[in-house]
């Protein structure tokens, strides 16, 4: 049986990894290299030598069980390290560390801290989140903890994550996030990272698939061909490829273009937001021991992530920092402008927060994509796409899958890919 997988991101690679032994597998990827959103830059400067660093900042959580097991299975377990991921908030012209209950107490009024603690306890006690899919996060926070907790704590977080869509986000999403992220202990949360970069995971998966006979081919799928309710093949750069099954990992907006949605019978109207993420190579560190800084200030990015305050700069021979923003529309200046213009905009904001920043920049890179995260708005729970569709031989895995709710992640995409592989094996 021949299976075509559309997309060599983690979902596509995970499905292929599980199927390549038993099936004839062809992954079609429109970019020259596999990896999708988890791809890395290869940096090579005369003073640092060669290394890999993620194009979008990445770390993992202790609960990412399937991904951790996969890293072990591929013999890469010794590269996975758990470090304290220090966080902070920039507001009123200064940085407030936000790692421990004591630090949060210093940044927020006591009454807000008490209300926030009660909100977290209440969120953790809710087992069935589905009724909260119909109400906004803002409504629930107002009802549970009041306006001040929303304004002082949640609003800046929601702003940096969802921008203009922040008031559309559902309470079910918020509850899911609080339940996952609130077990930080008194010293702050530990985050996982593969020393040398997650690129090693992508390469190991791709090698493993090829060794088992699978192929990873560069091309763009423009159509999934369906006849009599069954998959017949795909069209790749005008060439017809016959196959028995297709696993599609592309976002709904692309899926809509390559299949007759009437046949698919699912609502593909899922809003996504884009990301514009700059990475700077620096001569010096910028912040004292803060990895992740959320920002409530009038600058064109929502967070600054100093990677080398998480992983030592000695691994790279220089300091690395991301500045990043989500954007909600193709009309955004972050999408319309040239790379140089976006970098100039970001540099202006960075200079405002960290005077003298410009002089420390050795080089920069910018990655931008339109569809980098679903907007988990009211009603999103009902739009999650199934692994197995009504079209015989068509499977779906990606950021829109159940495994990627309430937050899309590398683990979620690996699980989604595995779920499709299981369904294929079971002949569903
Ligand atoms: C800014 C940012 C930060 C993140 N941080 C983290 C983090 O810290 N931790 C974490 O776990 N996760 C993080 N993620 C999420 C994680 O990277 C993604 O959830 C995961 O990599 C998605 O994998 P995927 O295979 O589902 O989708 P993708 O990686 O998007 O893969 C889909 C692939 O399909 C290809 N494709 C699209 N259309 C076609 C076509 N017509 N024909 C052929 N190929 C096509 C694309 O090029 C792409 O390679 C982050 C993501 C972003 C954007």
TrEMBL record:
GO terms, molecular function: oxidoreductase activity
Start and end residues of each Amine oxidase domain: 10-424
The name this protein goes by in its record: Protoporphyrinogen oxidase
Superkingdom as given in the UniProt entry: Archaea
Pfam family, one: Amino_oxidase
PANTHER family associated with the record: PROTOPORPHYRINOGEN OXIDASE (PTHR42923)
InterPro entries, alphabetized: Amino_oxidase, FAD/NAD-bd_sf, Zeta_carotene_desat/Oxidored
